[in-house]
UniProtKB/TrEMBL annotation:
Matching Gene3D superfamilies: Aldolase class I (3.20.20.70)
Family as reported in the entry's similarity comment: Belongs to the KHG/KDPG aldolase family.
Protein name, per record: Bifunctional 4-hydroxy-2-oxoglutarate aldolase/2-dehydro-3-deoxy-phosphogluconate aldolase
Keywords: Carbohydrate metabolism, Lyase
Oligomeric form and interacting partners: Homotrimer.
PANTHER family: 2-DEHYDRO-3-DEOXY-6-PHOSPHOGALACTONATE ALDOLASE-RELATED (PTHR30246:SF1), 2-KETO-3-DEOXY-6-PHOSPHOGLUCONATE ALDOLASE (PTHR30246)
Pathway: Carbohydrate acid metabolism
Gene Ontology molecular-function annotations: lyase activity
Keyword Lyase on entry: yes
Length: 214
């Protein structure tokens, strides 16, 4: 997963978007510069949406399946073409399955025990969730005993505070509903969404380049 996150520091989290809106919505984000998406399977038609978006989106789009809680769900999303899997938790069966089948997985962690279990199965790029409920530098507390780990902040991340997570050492962020203006989404203002997200993403990428140089 680290190679994906290094190239795509922002994962756009897609949840509860209708079948009629999901393609124009994802394309509006694609035109803004985003290439990495998570479609959460916590709602009814998401697995079919993953399949449809893998067919419809440009070839350089990466589509992961989120909220994968067990092996059965993992098998289903991989069968429809998911490029990677995200989980809000540390499930040993899912970790073992992904390790054995060389599946890219971003497992959810919050405690040192979670991190230790993930490392047992060879996973070191981890999703800190819910990041917004924890101190901004919480990842550094985990990196102390686990220096080989990297963290993607998910939960409570917004375009306004995203750079703060990177400044505190996170390698990536996942942003859900906060990514776009709710009114623009409701009114299907796709061009406005593209404009706003492009402005955010370009500014963020510029700031990240400046931090690397310094």
């Amino acid at each position: 997963m680290k190679d994906i996150i290094d190239k795509n520091p922002v994962i756009a989290i897609i949840r509860n978007i209708s079948d009629s809106d999901i393609l124009p919505y994802m394309m509006s984000l694609y035109h803004a510069g985003l290439r990495c998406f998570e479609i959460s399977i916590s709602h009814g038609n998401a697995i079919e949406q993953i399949h449809n978006m893998k067919q419809a989106m440009p070839e350089d789009t990466l589509i992961g399946a989120g909220t994968v809680l067990d092996v059965q769900a993992a098998e289903k999303v991989l069968a429809v073409g998911a490029d990677f899997i995200l989980s809000p938790s540390t499930n040993a069966a899912v970790l073992e399955y992904c390790k054995e089948n060389m599946v890219r997985l971003l497992p959810g962690v919050m405690t040192p025990t979670d991190v230790s279990v993930c490392q047992e199965y060879g996973f070191s790029t981890l999703k800190l969730f819910p990041a917004g409920e924890l101190p901004m530098n919480y990842n550094k507390s985990l990196k102390g005993p686990f220096p080989g780990t990297s963290y993607v902040a998910v939960g409570g991340v917004t375009p306004q505070n995203a750079i703060d997570y990177f400044s505190h050492g996170y390698c990536g962020v996942g942003i859900g509903s906060a990514l776009v203006n709710k009114k623009d989404l409701k009114e299907k203002n796709w061009d406005k969404i593209t404009e706003d997200v492009k402005q955010f993403y370009q500014k963020l990428c510029g700031q990240l380049k400046e931090e690397k140089v310094s």
